[in-house]
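User: Hey, my collaborator sent me this sequence without any context and asked if I could get a structure. I don't really work with proteins. Can you help?
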Amino acid sequence: MRFRFSHSIILIPVVFLSFFFIYPLASILVRSLEGNTDFVFVPFRTLFVDSYYLGRIWFTIWQATISTIMSVVVALPIAYFFARCDFPGKTFLKALCTLPFVMPTIVVAMGFLSLFGAQGLINTLLMKIFELDKPPIMLSNTLAIIIIAHVFYNYAVVVRIVSSFWSSLDSQLEDTAKILGGSRIQVLCRVTLPLISPALISSSALAFAFSFTSLGVVLVLGGPQFATLEVSIYELTTKLFRLPLAAALSVVQLGFTYLVLFVYTRYQKMASMQLGLQSRGERLHSYGRPIRGIFIVAMVVYIFCLLSPLGALIFRFFAETREYLPFLFIGLFSDQAGSYFYLSPIIVIWNSVKFALCTVIISTIVGVIIAYRLSGSQGSISGIFDSLFMMPLGMSAVTLGYGYLISFNRDPFDLRGSWIILVIAHSIVAYPFVVRSVLPVINSMDKSLKDAAKLLGASQSRIFLSVELPIILPAILVGATFAFAVSMGEFGSSLMLLRPENATIPIAIFKFLGLPGEVNVGRALAMSGLLMIIVSLSFMAIEKFRYKGSGGF
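Assistant: No problem. I've predicted the 3D structure and written it out in structure-token form, which is a compact way to encode the shape of the chain:
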């Protein structure tokens, strides 16, 4: 019974991923080899002799590297704060601090425009104070705002992974080093950093993958001179129709992504090992009240400064729409002028919710089965399969959408105009979050519980329903909530695959930003605020469901 349960059921995700992930990627590879003569791969030869595309590859690598380094520098103090300090409201503050992790990139871009744009909060304030005629800070369409936005979006990845691991370390190791005469700097460099290095490396790899495949931030905040591989693939596919060249770029990007995710899965497995078993209260340092109070206040101010783009987005929304705010919200649920691309706004909102709910069902089933299969794997082969299953986590959504366009374009599997293909794309992107949420809990389960149930005569299915499922259910809910939030904010694949009648909230925001007039800006802000509320509530639910802080995120 156990053999059939643990091995035959894996066919569900294997068939799903083979058809909707491997096959589209294989189609991209085949398309990239079109025009091959005398064993010279024409699209790849074009890539590596054209200085423009070589520049795009190099720019994508080094901007992702800088973004990752900055994300780690920004996140480490917060990770220490949550790992070693206890205070009222800590859970809420951690949820608030890590909110950018599941915030859609299009909303993040809107927040930065509201804060740093020519008409943003900072420039408006400085112009009033110093009576200036022009905005003193011009960050729009610069490399600086792209990197700052990547740091804002990815520092939460480092905070979540590192703080969870750091809090499980035995603080007596650090205390012993101090007793032996080590200074704080020496203890940090020789004891603490080596101990947290697995979590630090795995979170850095993930932050690099997200910066490497960023689309929404670069499209909205950057100019054409800052095009990354992701943006180049999008433009070659949708504007220039140079499909073989886009496929070749996608293959190059997939190669980089796999290497990065292999590093992530290897060190994430090391980071999930608990080095100490003491209770949380014993793991926390105790400080004197004055120092502890100053430190907590300083960190709270620091966190709110990091979250200022979202605050600026909220402020700008109410400031610019206060005169017609009731009519704007009423307009979200009516269609008197057919303004939302000839769709009722309520249909746009319902499209996002409908796609997200379908994504939750598919990604949860696929993710839980994969998590169970990976929990029984050992050795180096386990790392290879783990990184393969995790590839969608850092894979380009544009690449995935492009693969679908060239794979499912003929009967009887012509899905180009169907919303089903969008749900499948969202599920491919979302199921790794379910895996990383459930897998650590499965690995940490006490095997004696299942052994005792087996001795009492319980079948494998009964053991799963009565023993294992109650333990992993909170982690499943966390993964499902992540999947919902990811689908609600998914931008890249939606931009590639959606038809106007299936428009979602992120697409509506992007389209409104491209239209002139204050009314359209107000509509984009209203949709951004609505999406931010939905994702925020989802993230609060994640912190509520989380089992003892476990999980890969």
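In plain terms: The chain has one domain: 2-545. You can pass these tokens on to your collaborator as they are.
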